[in-house]
Amino acid sequence: MNxxxxxxxxxNKRFSMRQIMNLYQVTKExxxxxxxxxxxxxxxxxxxxxxxxxxxxxxxxxTMKVILEGENVQxxxxxxxxxxxxxxxxxxxxxxxxxxxx
Length: 102
Fold this sequence. Notes:
The chain is α+β, with helices and mostly antiparallel strands and about 100 residues long.
């Protein structure tokens, strides 16, 4: 059965490229839809180009709403929150031994 939940996520700094790609990866694997809303702009996380543009223009310490609809939304919400709150020590993004499926 599909469920819908939403919550606000406050970011403490701009997202790194790693966080953006991790969010994209988990949303691709999710059997449902994930939407982010900030400053009256809505974006579907599965659309990479619009999602990256949206995240890059977010202000530091922005509060955005995330809406999840699908199966097992609680577990997916925890994954999204974990990725959004992670502080990356590597500001350049990916290490050479990591791969990302697009």
